[in-house]
Amino acid sequence: MNNLFIFSIVIGLCIGVSNAFHEIGESKVVLSNQLEHSKLLKVHCRSKDDDLGEHILKIGQDYEFTFGDNIWQTTSFSCQMDQGPNFKHHQDFVAYETSWSKALEASCKWIAREDGIYFSQDGVPPTKKYQWDGPH
């Protein structure tokens, strides 16, 4: 009986600590379609534990998701963007990765433009990070 009581307390504390980190470390990733000529943008993001599915964005639309970093600070999301006729131009990239040097709260924005994919964090002006790959 004592072992069950102690086990219950330990599990409760672990859940409480995990929830505390989740509440404090809320992060956000935004993917934005700023392409031209009415092009659609297909985005698909996933982590080791979660597959967020495919989303089709019209010009001017954003797709965003929020999450809490795990307690081991190993949270990572990779995304794929596809655009153009039959979505033949694409790029795979790491959209978010926890680092001990980062603040507990982060906001990352990835912007699809005709000449490539741009990145902005916490309101800093975007910089070009990737070119579009050719047909696959």
UniProtKB/TrEMBL annotation:
The keyword Disulfide bond appears for this protein: no
Signal peptide residues on this chain, from the entry's feature table: 1-20
Keyword Transcription listed: no
Family matches, as InterPro entries: Self-incomp_S1
A biological process from GO: rejection of self pollen
One Pfam family this sequence matches: Self-incomp_S1
Subcellular location: Secreted
Keywords: Secreted, Self-incompatibility, Signal
GO cellular component: extracellular region
Family of this protein: Belongs to the plant self-incompatibility (S1) protein family.
Protein name, entry field: S-protein homolog
The species this protein was found in: Arabidopsis suecica
